[in-house]
User: Fold this.
Amino acid sequence: MQKRIRIGVDVGGTFTDFVLVDEHRDMIFTGKQLTTPTDPGKAICEGVARITHEAAVEISALDGVVHGTTLVTNAVIERLGAKVGLIATSGFRDVLEVGHEMRYDLYDLFLEKPEPLVPRNLRLTVNERVGSRGEILVELDEHGLKAASDELVAQGVDAIAVCFLNAYINAKHEKRASDIILSDHPNLPVTISTVVAPEIREYERTCTAVANAYVLPLMRRYITDLQDKLTALGLRGPLNVMLSGGGIAALRVAQEAPIQMIESGPAAGAISGAYYGRLTGTKSVIAFDMGGTTAKMCLIENFEPEHANTFEAGRVRRFRKGSGIPLKVPVIDLIEIGAGGGSISRFDAMGLLKVGPDSAGSEPGPVCYGLGGEDPTVTDADLLLGYLSPDYFLGGEMSLDVDVVRDAIGTKLAGPSGLDVIAVAAGIHAIVNNNMAAATRSHIAEKGRDPRRYTLVATGGAGPVHAYGVAKQLKLSRFICPLGAGVSSALGFLIAAPATEGVSSYVSRIDQIDLDQVLKIYRNMSETAIQSLVEAGGDVNKINIKRRVEMRYLGQGFEIAVDLPDDLDGANLPELLKIGFLERYTELFGRSISDVAIETVTWRITASGPTPNIQLNFEGQQIDRGAAEKGERQVYFPEIGYSPCKIYNRYGLAAGTSFTGPAVIEERESTVVAGPDTTISVDDHLNLIVDIHYPKDKA
Assistant:
């Protein structure tokens, strides 16, 4: 494989992370910049210029930049997207509000549903009708369509979404509608549902089309501006993006279907967690990525993160499934918690200490940054408890003010509550750990698994600080902190393979299925996927395609996925599908029913190129390796209170080193905290392996 020099960039709510991998020298360089929320491209360009300078690499020599951002998800959550109009089939104007019959809380008489992204006055309809088998029942009223689009433009919409009934089986009317709108309004962004979600279920498909149109103008401006800025810096290689499913795609995807990037940053963190699981031979991993704004958890089984085909955005109740906007987007299956270094602490009306989900972000930031933040955050508490060094944050680039933090916690929290300042700080740290552990425990329980068989892989700037506390809450016996953990999401962009997914719904009883139709579906999806991967820099001769189909018993409302072999030509497809479905059903539910009709619903492919082979060598960084031990300071642990604790220099710890806790291990982008009941060792890849020792009766 050709050697390359690439940069991964992860734009978070507080920091923008950078990793440069030079495969010619087998060297990795890392960096962090405070995110610039009003102009994210500013921090990106400053960070790219800095890291290339540190690596002694010309920007023009880069073979590419891979980028992920929280811009899409923030726009949906904070309702900062475009003014969108929707054109639907006559009689289906209110799909966004009708939703479906299920309630996310059966006993709440005042149930609050997510507000539609399109108000009713901007939802118009036209006459057309496609039958459930794709037959044209009513031709598209082109004059009505022109009138509807003109009316929406007159009302000042920035984008239009089109979603017609049963278009997933026959997209003719949607494609024609797009052509007509663009011929009259060529500069108006238009999204048709069959481009972003060509599958069954009208509500979810409409939501996905609308959400894509909602963020489309914003992302087009952002991507165009970023590309112009990087080109002006001297970048000649491509700018690629990470998709929510964990694959790398060409920039065109971000400009046409940006909704596929809604979880791009968290996806990279999960990819990184899977990579370190493979590197350490750990098959069952909880990838734990905690940054300045949110914490993300993903389960890794057999070195692969788990995936889902639906994602909920902007939940009315943050942890309540069904309370958000359902999007038909392939994603890595993870949970997000409003718990980060910048999460703000307060006492609620009942006098209970609460942490998050709102964050101080990078502007104004935690109190200790000295940038105008006034509300105590998790980072402030961690500093006061001794976990963070006031003189070595970001390798000494930022000084943290302990006295200002003590005054802020005393004035805003400790004083009004009558508690000690240290007790409040310890409470903040414990509460945020409990919030993350509780959400993770619920996520694992929903899948019927035991959390104790997992190993935590902690990444992100705040992840290694809180890994010990979270691991103990979950009764885990080990957690792992990679070198450069604070920027591991950015590394995830560079170790991910080019990948994309294809989907097409074809509903049929398996005893009536048309093999030729199935082969045609897979052939069309494969051709489109291969074209997309080649555009993203993949080798057409090294693309692997996996096929699967979602099936159910006739009459059921939900499906299960069954893997299919590579070659279906000449196969006894009905028998193949029946055997695969019954085996998978038994695996999931412990039993199956052999005499009930089975039907197929949705057919999918995953196309991917080879995974980059990166050697983890951090020797090139301009860091003073120094001695392993840096001295001691007072650090708070719940078991022993404040006590002297050894402080270690992460870069001075050689492979094979081993020592016992309590210990604080500092590096430029993050800090590892290990309690008094731990043993810490350094493996051959310079990962910190932290083993927790429980009393025998509590193990």
